[in-house]
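Lecture notes, continued. The same structure-token format from the folding unit now serves as the input rather than the output. Read the line below as a description of shape only.
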């Protein structure tokens, strides 16, 4: 319902409220463990928030962003975004192909994406910067 409200508010040009509703939808998905949906609605919230940069409200504060990638996940993501096959990534990182595929599954879930093409888009500069590892 929060997601639908965000869409309706965005359609009306009510960007601050659309951002708040999208942010609340992301938080609700995050609480129930749906990281992909949480990431999607976080991006919607950020897009709506970008249309009202000077507006500040408690509902626009992001309490918890997407789960950050680990150092190894980031290494795998960068290589996969460059178009390398899982076997080649495994050889470079001294892990098995199945390990690479497991990392990719976690990466996709954390970033709210479903494919190497989307990963390349995110890492290629045409989309938002993927979360940095904690540091």
């Amino acid at each position: 319902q929060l997601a639908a409200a965000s869409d309706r508010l965005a359609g009306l040009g009510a960007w601050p409220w659309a951002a708040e509703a999208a942010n609340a939808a992301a938080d609700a998905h995050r609480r129930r463990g749906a990281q992909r949906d949480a990431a999607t609605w976080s991006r919607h919230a950020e897009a709506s928030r970008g249309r009202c940069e000077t507006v500040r409200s408690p509902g626009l504060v992001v309490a918890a962003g997407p789960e950050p990638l680990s150092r190894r996940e980031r290494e795998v993501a960068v290589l996969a975004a460059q178009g390398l096959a899982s076997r080649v990534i495994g050889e470079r990182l001294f892990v098995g192909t199945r390990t690479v595929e497991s990392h990719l599954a976690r990466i996709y879930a954390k970033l709210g994406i479903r494919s190497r093409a989307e990963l390349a888009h995110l890492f290629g500069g045409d989309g938002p910067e993927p979360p940095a590892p904690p540091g």
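Point for the exam: The chain has seven helices and no strands.
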